[in-house]
Amino acid sequence: MNVYCKCPGCTSENRSKTNAKTRVEYAKKQGSSVRLQCANCGKVKAIHVNKIYAKKSKSIFILSIFIFLFGIGFGGYYLMQLISEMKTVIGIVAIASLFIVPSWVYSNLQKEDQLRVNSFNRTYVK
Ligand SMILES: [Zn+2]
Predict the structure, then answer these.
(1) Contact, 112 vs 57, CB < 8 A?
(2) How far is the CA of 8 from the centre of ligand 1 (A)?
């Protein structure tokens, strides 16, 4: 995932990739401070790992919105067809679940991502 830190010189946010899930794990790999070359001002600074943080993923956010909207659109389309053909109660339940599934996937993706961010940001290295 991506982790971020602010450059002490110009306060612009820098991004780096890691597969560490917590800050402690990150520190084990990188040491308690990381040398960072700022993408904005180009200065090389040592950043303590406690200053490095995770953020919610934009791609997961976009993906979950997409699944949500696509699911609703898909459900809506079939709902319109259903109404025009006046089908059974079971059909209506099936259509209702077409709305529930994307909502569920959406909230689950959001929750997972928040958990990932929390588990990184919650731990500190002494
Ligand atoms: Zn900078």
Answers:
(1) no
(2) 7
98 CA to centre of ligand 1 in angstroms:
48
Q: Separation of 86 CA from ligand 1 center, angstroms?
A: 63
Residue range 51-68, pLDDT digits in tens = 999 999 888 889 888 888
For β-strands 44-48 and 53-54, DSSP reports them as unpaired
For the segment 7-50, what is each residue's pLDDT rounded down to a tens digit?
A: 999 999 999 999 999 999 999 998 999 998 999 999 999 999 99
Beta-carbon contacts of residue 13 (< 8 Å; ≥ 6 apart): 4, 5, 6, 7
In the reported structure, the alpha carbon of residue 79 is separated from the centroid of ligand 1 by a whole-number distance in angstroms of 53
Q: What is the pTM of this model?
A: 0.70
Cα-to-centroid distance, 38 and ligand 1 (Å)? 5
Angle at 88 between CA 86 and CA 91, to 5 degrees: 100
